[in-house]
Structure formats: structure tokens, C-alpha cells
Amino acid sequence: MTQTARTVRQLFDLTGKTALVTGGSRGLGLQMAHALGEAGAKIMLSARKAEDLEQAAATLQAAGIDARWIAADCSKEEDTRRLADETLERMGAVDILVNNAGASWGAPAEDHPVEAWDKVMNLNVRGYFILSQQVARGYMIPKKTGRIINIASIAGLNGNPPEIRTLAYNTSKSAVIGFTHTLAAEWGKYNINVNAICPGFFVTKLAAGLIKSLGEAEMASHAPLGRLGDEEDLKGIALLYASDAGKHITGQWLAVDGGVRVVLGA
Q1: How far apart, in whole angstroms, are the C-alpha atoms of residue 88 and residue 44?
Q2: What is the largest CA-CA distance in the chain?
Q3: Is the pLDDT of residue 123 over 60?
Q4: Catalytic residue among 128, 139, 169, 241
Q5: What is the mean pLDDT of residues 12-30?
Q6: Using CB atoms within 10 A of its CB, is residue 129 exposed (0-12), middle (13-18) or buried (19+)?
Q7: Cβ contacts of residue 90 below 8 Å, gap of 6+?
Q8: Are 144 and 188 in contact (CB under 8 A)?
Q9: For the chain, what percent of residues have pLDDT higher than 90?
Q10: Is 62 helix (H, G, I), strand (E, B) or coil?
Q11: Nearest Cα to Cα of residue 256 among 125, 240, 159
């Protein structure tokens, strides 16, 4: 039987879906939560600080979005598994998981502290794995449906200029891309789509130190579009990956960087 093709609005509609967004109290996480909520999804935000989460959820609610929050540290296994279980208990589903919580550390490779390396890896890679596994076991695999969106970075695609000393961060984001490819291959049989977004430089708290040291104008000059990412630039790709508009896309990454990689020739 031939299925009647849906309209574009229907394909992008997330009404009835539930999304869990880590690192969701500000920046890119909150931006993506807005996008998914504006498309009709119920939102569960997570980050470490309850005060920030309460404020972020209130912002979403003021926009007419059904938003709640759970404080959790996704660098810790017990906290991460609790986050998945509590979200499923409270929301009844996790149709969309956005792995966005992240950390960075600046130091020359020869002086990089091992404890800082572990801090970055535990949150940026290990946390993604544990949360994806727990959500998949608890909901996506039994239901044979799901969307997982992993936030990587263009820093995981190329080496940095020598003045940007973020070895652990870059390595972690390369790992996220490999994790995305492999998980997509394994979980396709469960109808779980796994994709990654590789943002370039956005005006966020995580990038604030780098922007201050290099200068916003200097950083923007490396992008053909001549600017840094703003509060709207991840909304479209997040919604594509999360919705039925992207149902035949899996194991992919997309750079959202104003064309920086075009200049680099990578």
C-alpha cells in the first residue's frame, strides 16, 4: 500500500515527542531545546546547577513549551544513569536524546594535566556513551524508535592552530564522531538514528575565554560568512535530525561553522 506523502510541516512536527537535552541550561543546549520545543516536543533539560536549570526551564515555559529539568553531573556514571531513569519515570519516554554537556581545558600538550584530560573525556565521551546506553535500554530499543544527536565540534575534524591548546577537547570530539558512526551502524536495526553536529565558533560561555584572547573579529574573519554562530544557527539541523524529515539520515555529521572548513580545505 502506498503511503500518502506528508507535508513539510508534518515531517518536522514533534508533537507528542519527548526530548532530553544535556547541557541544556544555556548556550547551544538551550538553543536546541528551544527548537525542539517550538516544534511541539516536551523538553527535559539537564545540567549540573539547579538554579541555572530553573531559569532556563522558565524561559522555555514562557515561550509556551512544556519544559522540566533534572540536575545531574554527566561526568559521573551514577548521576548519568539516574538522569535517564528519572526522565523516563517522569516523562514516560525519551524519543530524542541530545548529548550536549561538555567541558574543555586549555594547556600545551606537554603540560596537560592528566586529571584535566580525564575530566574532559569523562563528560564529553564517557557520559555520552552511558546516557545513550541507559536511554536506549530503557526506552528506544524496546520501542524500536529513537533519535540521538551528539554534539561534536569542528575541533574534532582538524588540528587547531598552535595557539589554541585544547588537545583533550579536540580528541574527545573526534571520539564523538567515531562513536556516532559506530552506534548508528549497531542500532539501525532498532530504528534508532544517530547523528552528530559539529559546531564551529559560537558566542557561548564555553568559548568565552578563547574569544576574549583571540578577539571575536579575528575569529570571525576565518569564516567565509564573516561571523560567529548565533542563537539560531543550530535550530534547523537539530530539528532535521530529531524529526521525520531526517528519518533516512543516520551515522552522519554536519559542520555548522560559517564555512571555516571550506577555507581549511578539509
Answers
A1: 10
A2: 63
A3: yes
A4: 169
A5: 98
A6: middle
A7: 44, 68, 70
A8: no
A9: 82
A10: helix
A11: 240
Q: Rounded mean pLDDT of 109-134?
A: 96
* Per-residue cell: 154: 569542528
Other CB atoms within a 10 A radius of the CB of residue 81 amount to 18
Question: Could you read off the pLDDT of 74-107 as tens digits, one per residue?
Answer: 999 999 999 999 999 999 999 999 999 999 998 9
Q: Which residue would you say has higher pLDDT here, 160 or 131?
A: 131
Residue in 100, 89, 182, 189 with CA at minimum distance from that of residue 134:
89
190 is catalytic: no
Indicate whether this model's pTM tops 0.90: yes
CA neighbor of 176 nearest in space, from 123, 238, 128 = 128
For the chain, what are the domain ranges?
8-199+234-256
The domain defined by 8-199+234-256 carries CATH number 3.40.50.720: yes
Name residue 26's amino acid.
R
Q: How far, in Å, CA of 164 to CA of 214, rounded? A: 9
- Which grid coordinates belong to 68? 522540566
pLDDT at 162 over 50: yes
What is the 8-class DSSP label of residue 175?
Answer: H
Question: CA-CA distance, 244 to 136, in Å (whole number)?
Answer: 19
